[in-house]
Amino acid sequence: MQQVAYCLALGLFVLIMGIHCHPERPNIPVDPVAQAIFQTAEANRTPDGFLTQEEMTEIFQRFDMNADGNIDETEFIAHWTLLKLGDLEHAVTLFHRADTDRNGEISKNPDFARLFYYFDRDGDHKIAESEFLAVWYSLST
Ligand SMILES: [Ca+2]
Ligand SMILES: [Ca+2]
Ligand SMILES: [Ca+2]
Ligand SMILES: [Ca+2]
């Protein structure tokens, strides 16, 4: 019994020390692709460091090359390639994560609306660069 208590105390000590030594959350590796997308989207409208719904819609429209209101995989890959965003495998992963209802295309509803909600972690109706980078990272890994 004493041994268990000892182990618990030791575990707690290690935990506290761990938190103490790393008071900040682990840094999210900055993905240059995500950063480029964010900054391009930002620069077109209000360069205030936030993506608004309008700015996000603009990204959507650029990917939706035939303007039918949906982004299919071909369009996504084509635009991805056009923007030289790199790794195609990465593109396919992102596409499928973004297709939240898995019908084979990213539509404004529900996929894009859900994505906006998902990216906007603090619920202030705009996406900060840090929010964008964090969610992008979690979507691509
Ligand atoms: Ca903006
Ligand atoms: Ca389309
Ligand atoms: Ca979909
Ligand atoms: Ca936000």
UniProtKB/TrEMBL annotation:
Domain EF-hand, residue spans: 51-86
Organism this protein belongs to: Dreissena polymorpha
InterPro entries, A to Z: EF-hand-dom_pair, EF_Hand_1_Ca_BS, EF_hand_dom
A molecular function GO annotation: calcium ion binding
Record key words, sorted: Calcium, Signal
Classification via PROSITE patterns: EF_HAND_1 (PS00018), EF_HAND_2 (PS50222)
Protein name, UniProt field: EF-hand domain-containing protein
Pfam name, any one: EF-hand_5
Signal peptide: 1-21
